Fold:
Amino acid sequence: MFKEYILDNNLTVVYECMNHLKSVSFGVWIGVGSRNETRQKNGISHFIEHMLFKGTKTRTARDIAYAIDKIGGEINAFTAKDCTCFYTKTLDSDLETAVEILSDMILNPLFNPVHIETEKKVVLEEISMYEDDPEEYVHDLLTEEMWSDGPLGYPVLGTAESLNSITRDDLFEHMSHFYIPDNCVIAVVGNFEENRLLEIIDKYFGGWKSIGYCRLPETRPDIRANFVYRKKDIEQTHICLGFRGLPMSDERIYALMVLNNIIGGGMSSRLFQKLREERGLVYSVYSYPTMFRDCGMFTIYAAANPEMAEEVVRIIGLELKNLIENGITENELIISKNQFKGNYILGLDSTSGRMNAYGKSKIITGVVNSPEKVLESIENVS
Structure:
């Protein structure tokens, strides 16, 4: 069972001890992502994530990498539209080392001007890589179009223009607004002694003070109905259909996840069976919900021969129409719920999976549901 603790500086810690293991997953979650940016500085949250690995006042980038490799651990990070996470996975005996390294990266960044310019080249290559991947690109295009009136539509990586406009002062200013204890959650899962864990966190993060907080106004964006097309010299047509979804805090998300499994969430789903198994029109087809703090979207993706793209869209429309008019069968409901529960339980088998579930839920919704509560909510879907 997980527990919560709040340090004197208002930093929230969510943790669960699993004494039968020999490892610990430790994550620092910051409530900032591309939806907290301006168009002019789009990509700054992701760029900061990169730059925090490039050295501190006492460590070089090589020192950070060597210190983790030396103990056989893992360290990484990611940026999303509404949060950023830095995390490690180490042996339980090396927990303090991992915490000290992460705290040094987050609290003492150097932002060397030479490294900034070098890393911009790296991220520009990352942007090019995504633009060259049609499956990735069509999802970004859909998101940009659906949330065109607000920053949820901004790409997490930013653009070449916005990235090149970011200065060293911009990095420090952005961090001063968002990298503060009030806007952070530490999630820890693995083998540790509770009091010792809290002592370590307080030792390295307890002195962290807020020097300002100015969250950009977040307004619930409106989804705009539209059709967009981009021509590329490739073999397939990549299709994304987007619909209004649900926020993460909505209790109906469990029903939506069950419904997603039936629509396109697995090999037994209606779209996979109809488009691939019966008609042979696609190799890849799937659906998934995306949930944010105050809104959400539902996406269906398929890739097909250009000559069959229109037929694929037509069949998807017919399947959705059939779903609306006739609902689902009892057998589909049972299979989907079991699929949902099985995937969820298997995900909890790893400390990383639990850490991610606890950290993301807490930083976005402010609450964490126990696994028992989640499984009960899935079972109650009818």
The radius of gyration is 22 Å. Residues 3-205 form a domain with the Cytochrome Bc1 Complex; Chain A, domain 1 fold (CATH 3.30.830.10).
